[in-house]
Fold this sequence. Notes:
The chain is mainly alpha-helical and 91 residues long. It starts with a helix and ends in a 6-residue tail after the last helix. The longest helix has 26 residues, at 30-55. Helices cover 77% and strands 0% of the residues. Helix 1 runs antiparallel to helix 2 (30-55) and helix 2 (30-55) runs antiparallel to helix 3 (60-85).
Amino acid sequence: MIDLLSYSCIGLGIVLWFWGTFPLLGNRSVLFKLHSLSVSDTLGSMSIVIGLLLKIPREWPLLILGLISLAIWNTVLGYVLAYCSRGENDA
């Protein structure tokens, strides 16, 4: 049962990775494309790490550190993108 749940999480993560690339083909703004790509990449990566946590629980300290790093790094990256995208008159 744990193996099935683990493989499901890993499969969901891979699907989210590919799902985030489809907005890159659209006619939306670059910031919308970056946002959708970063959100789906973060959720996909976290899902894969959770699947690995279920599969190899003896490595939980490193996998939890990976989850925390993904959450913090991608949140900070989102704030940096938002800050860089504002215009000179938006102060």
